[in-house]
Amino acid sequence: MADIALRNVRKSYAKQEVVHGVDAAIADGEFIVIVGPSGCGKSTLLRMIAGLETITSGEIAIGGKVVNEVEPKDRNIAMVFQNYALYPHMTVYENMSYGLRIRRLPREEINARVQRAAKILELAPFLQRRPRELSGGQRQRVAMGRAIVREPAAFLFDEPLSNLDAKLRVQMRLEIQKLHRELRTTSIFVTHDQVEAMTLADRMIVMHAGVVEQVGRPIEVYDDPNSLFVAGFIGSPAMNFLPGKRQGDEVALAGSPLHVPLPAPLRASAPEAIVVGVRPEHLVAGEGGTVFRFKVETVEALGADSLVHGAFGDATVVARVDGHHTPALGDELAFGAMPGKLYFFDAATGKRLRP
Amino acid sequence: MPGMVENRPWLTVLAHAILIAGVCLVAFPLYITFVASTLTLEQIVQVPMPLVPGDQLFENYSRALTAGSERGAHAPVGRMMFNSFVMAMSIAFGKIAISIIASFAIVYFRFPLRNFFFWMIFVTLMLPVEVRIIPTYKVAADLHMLDTYVGLTLPLIASATATFLFRQFFMTIPDELAEAARMDGAGPLRFFWDVVLPLSKTSIAALFVIQFIYGWNQYLWPLLVTTQESMYTTVIGIKRMITSGDQLTEWNLVMATAILAMLPPAAVVILMQRWFVRGLVETEK
Fold first, then answer.
1. C-alpha to C-alpha distances, A220 to A188, A224, A260, nearest whole angstrom
2. Hey, is the C-beta of B285 within 8 angstroms of any chain A C-beta?
3. Min CA distance, A96 vs chain B (Å)?
4. pLDDT tens digits for A111-159?
5. What is the pLDDT of residue A196?
6. How much is the pLDDT for B279?
7. Residues A325, A251: contact at Cβ < 8 Å?
8. To 10 degrees, what angle do helices B251-281 and B234-241 make?
9. Chain B closest CA to A25's CA: distance in Å?
10. Using CA atoms, how far apart are residues B90 and B86, in angstroms rounded to an integer?
11. Does the beta-carbon distance from A99 to B183 stay under 8 Å?
C-alpha cells in the first residue's frame, strides 16, 4: 500500500517530447484511470511509473520514496499487460509463482499466496494448465493473479481489457471493481475507453497530446469538463459542438439564425469565437429554453434509447431520445437544452469559458 | 477438399508410377551399396555384380568396425565413427550454444554498434570453411591443434546461419514477456534460462539436426587437420580405404563403412522428427 506522486514528469525520445510535464498525486488505495486517445502519452507515463521507461526529467515517488533510479523489481509494484504476457511454457501455477520464486520466498508461503489468489480469481481448477489451454478471460485473470500474489504497493494496468470481446470486457470490468474493493491496493489503470474510465475510476486523469487536460472524479469530469477535448472525449455519444460568433451578450451560431444567450458571469471575459456545447442526453424534445430545430437525417435505435442525428447550422447534432418514441426520417423536430446544460468554450484555445 | 481431386484412375496410376520411379532412382544406389557390403570381394569384382545380398553381412561389418581394411588406411571404423560422433556433437552443440547467446545479446541488449556487430556476423555467411581454409589451417597448426578434437571442431563452430535463425525467432517473442520478467525480478540471465531457452526448444532441435549432419559430413577440414589414423573421421576413412596402387580395394568393407556412415545422421533425423513436426505445429508464443 502506498501513495504515488508524479512531479513535472517528462519524457522525450531523441528530440521529440511526448509527455510534457505531468503532475499528479495519487492517494493510498485509490483507483486512478488514465484515459486518452492513442498516442496521448498515457502508456508511456504508466511505463515510467513501472520503471520500464526512463524518466527524462521530473520525479516519480512511490510511498514517499523517489524511484527514478530504482529497478522495476525493487519498486514494489505489479503490472498487468495488454496481451497478458504470460510465460507460454509455464503452467498457471508457475506463471503466478515465478516472481515469488525469484524472490526466494518459502515454498509454503508461495503456495498459500497462489492458492489465495486462485480462489479470489476462481482459477483453482486451472492451476496446472498452460496459458494456451485457457480462454482470453481466464488468461486475463492469470495475469491479474500474477500481480496479486506479489502483494505489491500498487497495481499498474496497461489497457488490460482491450483484447477481450465486448461481453467479457464488461464482466472483467466488474471483477476488477470487486477486486479493488477487496484488496484496496493503489491502482493505476490506463485505457482509451471512456466507459472503463467512467465505471472504474475513483478519479480519472484525462490526457491529450502528452498533457493532463483534467483530473477529477468521473462525474465531475463529465459534468464540468475543462476543455473542448475533455467534453468531446468523455461521454458517449460525444457532446455536440456548435461553433459561433459573439454578438453582444449572445452567441450567433454559424449557419443558423439561432442566438444563444451568454450566461451573465461569462459576459465580461468571453472572446470573439465561441463553441457552444450540449450533450445528446441534455436535449429534450419540445419547446423551452434554447431550442434547436433540425430535420432527422439518421436514427440509430439502440433499444433502450435512440440516437437522432440531424444537421444544425454548420454542424451535426445528436440527441438521445426514448427508444420507443423514435421519430421518422425527415421529421422536423425541436429540442430544448436542459437549463444550465449548455457549455461555452473559447474556440481559439479550446478552453472552457469560466467566470 | 475432395472436390478438388480428379477422380480418374489412370491419372492415379500414372502419378504413382512416376513417384515409384523417382523413389527407385534415389534408392537403387543405396541398395547396391548395401548389397555390396554383404558380399565377398570376389563376388563384387565379378561382372555383373550380383544384385541379391550375400551371406557376408556380419563378417564384413564386424571386420570394418573392429579392424578396418588391411589395405589403404588401417584404422578400425568403430574408432572413426567415434571421432565423427564427437566432431558432429561438438559442432552441433557448440554452434547452438554460441549462436543462441550471440543472438540473445543482439536482440535483448542495447550496446554501441549493435547492428554493426550483427552485420559483421551476417557477412561471415559469405566466408565458408573452404574459402578461409588456408589461414584457418595456419592458425590451427600454430596453436598445436592438429590431430586433436579441438582442432577438428573449434574452427567450424562459429555460425552466422544459426545466429540469424535465433535472432529471427527471438524477435517473434513479444517484448512484454521480457518486461513481465523484469517486473517479476528476473535478471537477463534468469530470463534467458527460464523463458528464452525453454521457448527455443523446437528451434534448438531443428538446428541440432541440421548442424549434426553438417558436422558429420565434413570432409575437407578433417582431411587437412588429421594425419594420424586414430583421428580420422568416417567420411575420411572411406576415402582412405580406397587404394590407388596395384592393390585391390576391399570394396565390400568400403561399402559396409559407407552404410555405417549413413546410419547416425539417419537416426538423428528419425529420432528428432517428432520435434520438427511439433516445431511446425506449435504456433503459440
1. 19, 6, 25
2. yes
3. 10
4. 999 999 999 899 999 999 999 999 988 999 999 999 999 999 999 999 9
5. 94
6. 60
7. no
8. 150
9. 23
10. 6
11. yes
Q: How many residues in chain A? A: 355
Q: Is residue A246 within 8 Å of residue A316, measured between CB atoms? A: no
Task: Enter the DSSP assignment of B283.
Answer: -
| Closest C-alpha among A221, A196, A189 to residue A206 | A221
The sign one gets for the Cα dihedral A164, A167, A168, A171 is positive
- What does pTM read for this prediction? 0.82
Side-chain-side CA neighbours of residue B206 (13 Å): 14
Q: Say yes or no to pLDDT of B5 above 70.
A: no
| Three cell numbers written together for A252 | 450567433
What residues form DSSP beta bridges with A243?
A: A275
Instruction: Name which of B176, B184, B283 to mutate to probe chain A: the one with the most chain A Cβ atoms within 10 A of its Cβ.
Output: B184
Q: Of the candidates B174, B186, B194, which has its C-beta nearest A85's C-beta?
A: B174
With cut-offs at 50, 70 and 90, classify the pLDDT of residue B50. confident
Chain A residues in contact with B198 by the CB 8 A cut-off are 89
Whether B156 and B91 have beta carbons less than 8 Å apart is answered as: yes
Q: What does the pLDDT read at residue B280? A: 58
Residue B169, min C-alpha distance to chain A (Å): 15
Chain B residues touching A77 at Cβ < 8 A: 183
The whole-number average pLDDT for the span B105-115 is 91
Q: What pLDDT does residue A189 have? A: 96
Tell me the C-alpha distance between B231 and B48, whole Å. Answer: 37
Instruction: Tally Cβ neighbours within 10 Å of residue B175.
Output: 13
The residue-averaged pLDDT of A222-251 equals 93
- Spell out the SS3 assignment of chain A: CCCEEEEEEEEEECCEEEEEEEEEEECCCCEEEEECCCCCCHHHHHHHHHCCCCCCEEEEEECCEECCCCCHHHCCEEEECCCCCCCCCCCHHHHHHHHHHHCCCCHHHHHHHHHHHHHHCCCHHHCCCCHHHCCHHHHHHHHHHHHHCCCCCEEEEECCCCCCCHHHHHHHHHHHHHHHHHHCCEEEEEECCHHHHHHHCCEEEEEECCEEEEEECHHHHHHCCCEHHHHHHCCCCCCEEEEEEEECCEEEECCCCCEEECCHHHCCCCCCEEEEEECHHHEEECCCCCEEEEEEEEEEECCCEEEEEEEECCEEEEEEEECCCCCCCCCEEEEEECCCCCEEEECCCCEECCC
pLDDT band at B285; cut points 50, 70, 90 = very low
Q: Is the peptide bond before A218 cis (omega within 30 degrees of 0)?
A: no
**Are residues A154 and A4 in contact, defined by beta-carbon separation less than 8 angstroms?**
yes
